[in-house]
Amino acid sequence: MYKVFFQIVAILLPLTLSGCLNKEQYKQKQLDKIQTYVNQFRATHRVDYLDSALLVMNQVVEQFPEYRGVASYKIAEIYYLKKDYEQALAELENAEEGVYSKIKPIWKNKIKVKIAEKAGDSLEIRSLYKQLYDDYLSGYREIDSIVKVVLKKQNDNEIYFSEINLLHVEMYHYRRLLTDTETILASIDSLQAATQGNERYFERLKNLFIDDNYEIFLE
Predict the structure, then answer these.
(1) Which of 6, 19, 26, 84 could form a disulfide with 79 if both were Cys (CB 3.0 to 4.6 A apart)?
(2) 179-190 tens-digit pLDDT
(3) pTM given for the model
């Protein structure tokens, strides 16, 4: 399933390089091909799709070296999906800040969690869970006005299958690792009351945690 902030990068990959339109069209076509490979991996879990995505991305970076700083985000995602967390973290160190300044620390902490889990470092894991929840909460507040508009939509399906729901699931996932389900449900109720958002959507969000079925949204 899609990770919310990796999705944002897929949507926001900028076309900022100089040159003729044909070069830009070619680059975008290659980026679309990379995303298709990633989507195919998510649907099949065949790692060869990720190998193909890396091959094409390396070709893009070779032809457009000024794109390297942005490309590092996508390369990091691919290595994350390959479970090569150390390489994913190394790629993020090379990534430029720009519009992704709020996203970068979240991704780094998500990767560090995987590394700590492999090492069995329970203290580091709990510390990173707390950092991630705080990071998500901070990012959530940054887009508060956008969230409120989305949550008032009449069609709960439109919200449920949006990036906003993915953001909620990830944010509450890390909080749940520090607390209990009752606390999460109370927090969701408070959010609904504060935003006056679509009640059907919030009931569906709560049911994900009641049924312990929210991990279908997590990679």
Answers:
(1) 84
(2) 999 999 999 999
(3) 0.69
Q: How far is it, in rounded angstroms, from Cα 138 to Cα 142?
A: 6
CA 119 – CA 141 distance, rounded (Å): 33
Buried b (16+ CB within 10 A) or exposed e, 172-198: bbbbbeeeeeeebbebbeebbeebebb
The distance of Cα 71 from the centroid of its chain, to the nearest Å, equals: 15
- What is the C-alpha separation between 83 and 102, in angstroms, rounded? 23
What's the DSSP call for residue 96?
-
Residue located via tokens 């902030």? 5
Q: How far apart are CA 103 and CA 13, in angstroms?
A: 13
CA 165 vs CA 28, 142, 162, 171: distances in Å:
28, 16, 6, 10
The token pair that represents 202 in the structure block: 């919030």
Phi, psi (deg, nearest 5) at residue 3? -90, 135
Centroid of chain to Cα 167: 8
Predicted pLDDT at 97: 75
- Please give the Cα distance from 34 to 25 (Å, whole number): 14
